[in-house]
């Protein structure tokens, strides 16, 4: 998939890949040209991604080649063991949950997973969890608390699944219980918005001591399409909706919704997932290092202080 504003970058990349192939075959004379193309790519990428509109950043957040939760687990979490089922209804593959080691420390990991190819996307319900997915997350949160293990969540969903079956099985309650459980966890918690952060389906995994976001991810109460449908009843207004929602990483940092913005290599994570994971890992280490020095009660107080201080209000005398 090539977005319009990325076309020149893909052309440079194709030329660069051809020269790299020749260089690996022993054609040393192409090295200077290869280095020039690499420099050109970096400069062009920096220019392109610096000036993106909110809607264009939404498009990047949804890019099919953008790394998912499974990619970050592969790059960052050692000996990951996944758990399955909610102990009530069944398994939901839109939520990945399990235990592993991050930088030598045991961690509990929960994240939305959209899937890569068509078959997996259908199996994962395009990253839109059912209630059993959130109940599986709650099960993991409680196990993490029991064994004093820090929690890491990866947020990447257009929203919780709005189907009839999901509603019948208590979708809204499952989301609320997940938020409530996270709010009072007596272990360190860090949430990272890695792609789409849509509605309550995202917030269910977002009530953490530290909330971080990748440079081109978004976090919003509703999608731009949903906002345009409600406010204007016109899908051509998605660009205006994206701007009005203040959903970009820069906006969210200024509003105090997120604690830090994680830069993406070459301006967008899909150009180099491994390097993106490295940058994300540095932030996770720093956040967990800060939080692990707090007592269980201090962790809860820190979380309460963070979320109750959001927003602006006034009282009448």
Q: What distance lies between the first and last C-alpha atoms, to the nearest angstrom?
A: 57 Å
Helix content: 40-55%
CATH homology superfamily name of the largest domain: 2-enoyl-CoA Hydratase, Chain A, domain 1
Order of helices and strands: HHHHEEEHHEHHEHEEHHHEHH
In percent terms, what proportion of residues is strand? 15-25%
Major beta sheet summary: 8 strands, mixed
Could you say which structural class the secondary elements and strand pairing correspond to? alpha/beta
What global shape is seen?
globular
CATH architecture of the largest domain: Alpha-Beta Complex
Oligomeric state of the chains in view: single chain
* Spatial extent as radius of gyration: 21 Å
Average of the residue pLDDT scores: 93
CATH names the topology of the largest domain as 2-enoyl-CoA Hydratase, Chain A, domain 1
CATH uppermost class of the largest domain: Alpha Beta
């Amino acid at each position: 998939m090539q977005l319009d504003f990325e076309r020149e970058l893909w052309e440079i990349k194709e030329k660069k890949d051809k020269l790299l192939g020749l260089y690996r075959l022993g054609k040393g004379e192409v090295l200077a040209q290869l280095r020039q193309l690499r420099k050109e790519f970096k400069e062009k990428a920096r220019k392109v991604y610096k000036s993106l509109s909110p809607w264009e950043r939404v498009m990047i957040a949804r890019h099919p080649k953008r790394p998912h939760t499974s990619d970050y687990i592969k790059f960052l979490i050692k000996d990951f063991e996944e758990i399955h089922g909610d102990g009530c209804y069944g398994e939901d593959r839109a939520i990945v949950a399990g235990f592993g080691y991050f930088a030598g420390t045991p961690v509990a990991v929960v994240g939305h997973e959209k899937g890569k190819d068509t078959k997996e996307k259908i199996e994962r319900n395009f990253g839109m969890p059912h209630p059993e997915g959130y109940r599986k997350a709650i099960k993991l949160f409680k196990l993490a608390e029991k064994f004093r293990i820090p929690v890491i969540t990866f947020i990447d969903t257009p929203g919780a699944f709005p189907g009839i079956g999901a509603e019948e099985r208590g979708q809204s309650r499952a989301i609320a219980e997940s938020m409530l459980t996270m709010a009072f966890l007596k272990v360190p918690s860090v949430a990272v918005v890695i792609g789409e952060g849509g509605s309550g389906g995202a917030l269910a995994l977002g009530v953490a001591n530290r909330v971080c976001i990748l440079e081109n991810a978004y976090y919003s109460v509703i999608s731009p399409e949903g906002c345009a449908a409600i406010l204007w009843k016109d899908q051509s207004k998605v660009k205006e909706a994206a701007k009005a929602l203040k959903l970009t990483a820069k906006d969210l940092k200024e509003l105090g919704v997120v604690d830090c913005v994680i830069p993406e290599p070459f301006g967008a994570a899909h150009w180099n997932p491994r390097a993106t994971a490295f940058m994300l890992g540095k932030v996770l280490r720093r956040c967990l290092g800060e939080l692990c020095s707090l007592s269980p009660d201090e962790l809860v107080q820190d979380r309460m202080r963070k979320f109750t201080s959001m927003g602006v209000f006034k009282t009448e005398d």
